[in-house]
Amino acid sequence: MFAQLAPSPSPSPANLSHFVNRRSFRIFTFAVSASLPTANPSRPPIQANNPLFFYFIVGGKDLNLDATRKDDSKRFTLEANEEEIDWMNLESDIRLWTRALRPVQWYPGHIMKTEKELREQLKLMDVVIEVRDARIPLSTTHPKMDAWLGNRKRILVLNREDMISNDDRNDWARYFAKQGIKVIFTNGKLGMGAMKLGRLAKSLAGDVNGKRREKGLLPRSVRAGIIGYPNVGKSSLINRLLKRKICAAAPRPGVTREMKWVKLGKDLDLLDSPGMLPMRIDDQAAAIKLAICDDIGEKAYDFTDVAGILVQMLARIPEVGSKALYNRYKIQLEGGCGKKFVKTLGLNLFGGDSHQAAFRILSDFRKGKFGYISLERPPL
């Protein structure tokens, strides 16, 4: 038997502004001097003292209005502001979906061994470059990161920028700019943004040698540490900066197991470090997204469970939806149950092997077969 947890209840119109994020619902604000008619004459007109007077979610059967409309007896103007799905509700649902699953936890021995050493190396760094997955920027930062860095200069890199849309990129840039964090979008595979990152690291730490000269010391290279979660692209980024393969890199977590200093010209030293994870991941919604994006070891999770949640998430994201899932796999998402979808795909294509079916769905997402999909949005 398969059970699909019901989504969180929709917010009331009075509280709508607290819940809705960007680009899929369309919220319209009206300035009206008279009652608004409905498309259904059997329903009474909407009065100005009705809370629905202020907010309408387009897509229902009763609302069919042009962007601007005029009438001899009644005049009103309509201003449209496109918004997206309720990401807060989706996050709540992901937490509900994960409660019945085996917790996703992964903390291999090399991470424990190098964490203490990394914290010591951080004291020597002039600037820290934190690399995150652009699809899940909030889930790919260590909870102790701010405490480790203190007031040290910091550059935030959102790698895999080719996997998200331009709108998502702009939204995240604005979000971090408000926090005073310099952010660069990169594509470690193709090298986009790598040179800009190198220039920014040198400029941010440019006062290092000025202070050394004041003390009568000789100038030295700027020291920049590149840190982040496993498999977010740290080593690939360094290789792109150096224009040659110096650091081991592969599309799986846990390849880098020890720290390594490399030199970029005469002016910049870079530290490649193993991916750092907390010993225990308390936020299982974040852990599931790490698994979906291949930013955590495969032994940490059940493929069928993770692929099932991914299917349920994709069905809720307007850029994909259940129609795109059907077009790709020729399977209906019955009852909104992702795990049943995975098992049906296993029966249809893999002789009943749900693991292979789950792997196919996860691989399709990771390869961008569903388009430019971000699994997180900036908080309101």
Automatic annotation (TrEMBL):
Q: Which UniProt keywords apply?
A: GTP-binding, Nucleotide-binding
Signal sequence, renumbered to the chain:
none
Do you know which CDD domains this protein is assigned to?
A: YlqF
Record-level GO BP terms? mitochondrial translation
Pfam families hit by this protein: MMR_HSR1
Record's GO cellular component terms? mitochondrion
Concerning PROSITE patterns, the annotation shows: G_CP
Please name the InterPro entries in this protein's record.
G_CP_dom, GTP-bd, GTP-bd_ortho_bundle_sf, GTP-bd_ribosome_bgen, P-loop_NTPase
Q: What are the protein's GO molecular function terms?
A: GTP binding; GTPase activity
All copies of domain CP-type G, residue ranges: 115-279
For this protein, the record's PANTHER family field holds:
DAR GTPASE 3, CHLOROPLASTIC, MITOCHONDRIAL RIBOSOME-ASSOCIATED GTPASE 1
Name the record gives this protein: CP-type G domain-containing protein
